[in-house]
Each structure stands twice: as structure tokens, then as C-alpha cells.
Amino acid sequence: MTLKGKLKIDSVLLEKQAIEELHDKSYYGRIKGDTLEISLPESAFLIYMGKIRVEFEEKEIGFEDFFLMASSLLKNFELLYIVYKDLRERGYYVQPGVTGFRVYPRGGHPGKTPAEFFVFVTSERIPLLLSQLRLHLETVGNLKKRLVVAIVDEESDITYYEVKKTSPSGTYVSGLRKGLSKASLLEDRVMVWDYDASLALQKDGFFGKPMDEGHLQLSLIEACYLLKKDILEIEDRNHMVLDFKMFAETASRIESDFMIKYAVYEKLRNEGLAPKTGFKFGTHFRVYKKIDDMKKLPHSDYLVHAVEQGHIFSLQQLSRAVRLANSVRKEMIYGTADSQVDFLIIGRMRL
């Protein structure tokens, strides 16, 4: 039997019989007194499934008309419907939530089990603000749930990503002493001339890359870290000694986002991790948790990209980064620097 309902601005109200038929058996909607209120995505799905008929201003409206009206009433309605339908057809019970939907584990349902994760729905065409992502993370974190971002592409395929905070750490400990050597700032890198210091920096600290036997070249990030730790004294080409502030200002003129990258690099190093350039992977750093033998380097564990607090994600770029990280068996991490450095893991989720 098809149940009847009425469209009321942003939801559909069904009569008492729907409570037993739709809510108690399949967990659609929310009970409001003697009626059942169902959201617009739920309503469209139930119309499509032939379970309800909906009236507006005393006139029955079919799936097409309802869809058109709902898309004018609810922002991104078509995206929400596509994701809602997909989740329902995968066997999940889904209800409206603070980020879009809350989703219950298979075998669970409202009233029996808590929700498993919350879903935020967006389009591949809509830039994603880091601030928005952090707000959703904080919201679902307070509820002790997981956050999933559902991205709908132009052909209505959906990719699900789980986003979570992380605190990466490793076991790598540098044995370098203070005042190890002097080094020279060249155009966009730093050169260590002393043979023993070059060997120690590479062997005992996993810093730099030999230019030839006895001479080590360091990246600006590495050199700045070593300068701050008082391991190196750095001069410019005129033999002027540079302090941390002077070096950082020079490096920032060469690389505009230098200080954001540096803050993330320093945090990684201080947490027992060994970061090296991630240029070949299209990220700022590839990161090792443990290194036992410099001659037999393991595969790196993470790819880390440093972003500012006002960062806006291009979802095409995000998709490429996560897919690449997964293809080389690494986790994709974004480091954000403000008063402190925070890390977010973004990874594909298979439902």
C-alpha cells in the first residue's frame, strides 16, 4: 500500500500509519506526535521506490516535479539525494545529521546502536575550505564519531574519504652535537664543506644529500632547522653570519610558504620522524617513522603537505594526492600551522 504525505517547505509529513510502515520497520524519518516527518532526500527516495505519494497544495506531484521543487528548496539537494540513495542501497540506515547525514553500522539501526559515522556531502566543483573541514571534525569529534566526506563528481559517481586528526610520531633520534660545523647559504640551498660534518649530518641525522665526496648540500628547510638547533652556523656568500630570523626572512623571499613548511617540518622532526622532500610525489615531504640503516632505507610511511589555516582544497588535487599516496602504500597527511601544528589524515573509504 502506498502512503500519502504532504510537502511542507523543507520536509514531508505522513500520517500515523507511516510510523509503523516506514519508521518502525525501516527507520525512515522522525516521529512528530501522530505524524512522521521525513526529509526531502528521504522523500524523493521513497517516491522513487513507490512507497509514498506526495501532495502539494492539494495536488499530487510525481518524482520529477518533486525533485525540481526540492532542488529549489534545499541547497545541493541533488547531491544529497545521490549520496542518500547510494548509502541506502548499500544497506545502511541513514538519518539527517549535523554535517548532512548520520549513518548507522550494518546490522545496527536507530534505537539499537549509535551512529557509526557522519557524512558531509559536496561536489567536485565546490572548493572545500580547511576551516569548514575542521569545524565538521570538531563537531563529530565532540560526538565521538568519524567524519566521512562524500564527493560527487560530474557524472554522479561518489568517492568517500575519511578525515581524522592524527599525531604522527616516530623513533628516529638524531645524535648530532651542537656547533658541529659552518655552512654557506648559496642561492636556494646550503652547502656544508667540512668532510666529517657532512658525513655526520647524513649518517647521524638523515640530513642533506652529498654533492660529491665530502661536501653535503642541504635544503633550506633542513638548514633552518639545524641553525635553530645550534648544530650549524650559517653564513651568506659574503661570510656574514645569519641568525634564525635573518635566514628565515631570506628563505621566505625565495619560497613564499617557507615558514608554513618549516613549522610542519620542525614538528615532524621533534616527534621523532625523519622528513625528506616529497617533490616526486607532488607533496612537501615524504616521512619516515624509523630508520635502522642509512644504506637500506625503508619505504617512507607518510606523505605530508603543509597548508595555511586559510587553505582551500581543490577537490581534484585532493583526489590526486590521496590516490597517489594509496598507490604507493602511504598515508596522506596535511599539516596546518597556527599557534600550534595540527595534522589531518585524509584517505579513501570503501563502504
From the structure above, extract its key features.
Trna Endonuclease, Chain: A, domain 1; about 30% strand; alpha+beta; 24 strands; MutS, DNA mismatch repair protein, domain I; 3 domains; six-stranded mixed β-sheet; about 350 residues
Give the overall shape.
elongated
Runs in which pLDDT lies below 50 for 5 or more consecutive residues are none
Specify the structural class.
Answer: alpha+beta
Classify the fold: give the CATH topology of the largest domain: Trna Endonuclease, Chain: A, domain 1
Backbone CA Rg: 27 Å
Q: Assign the CATH architecture of the largest domain.
A: 3-Layer(aba) Sandwich
- Overall mean pLDDT stands at 94
State the domain count.
3
Helical stretch tally? 10
Side by side, the strands of the main sheet go: 7-8-9-11-12-24-23-21-20-19
Kindly provide the name of the CATH class of the largest domain: Alpha Beta
Q: Which bin fits the share of residues in helices?
A: 25-40%
Count the E strands.
Answer: 24
Q: Sheet bearing the most strands, described?
A: 10 strands, mixed
Beta percentage is 25-35%
Query: What is the straight-line distance between the termini?
Result: 32 Å
What does this 3D model show about the protein?
The protein is α+β, with helices and mostly antiparallel strands and 351 residues long. It folds into 3 domains: 1-74, 3-Layer(aba) Sandwich (MutS, DNA mismatch repair protein, domain I); 75-166, Trna Endonuclease, Chain: A, domain 1 (3-Layer(aba) Sandwich), CATH 3.40.1350; 181-348, Trna Endonuclease, Chain: A, domain 1 (3-Layer(aba) Sandwich). It is 32% helix and 32% strand. The chain is built from 10 helices and 24 strands. The protein has a 10-stranded mixed sheet, with helices on both faces. A 6-stranded mixed sheet has the order 3-4-2-1-5-6. Helix 2 (40-48) packs across helix 4 (77-89), helix 7 packs antiparallel against helix 8 (244-254) and helix 7 (220-228) packs across helix 9. The longest helix is centred in the N-terminal third of the chain and has 13 residues, at 77-89. It is elongated. It starts with a strand and ends with a strand. The mean pLDDT is 94.
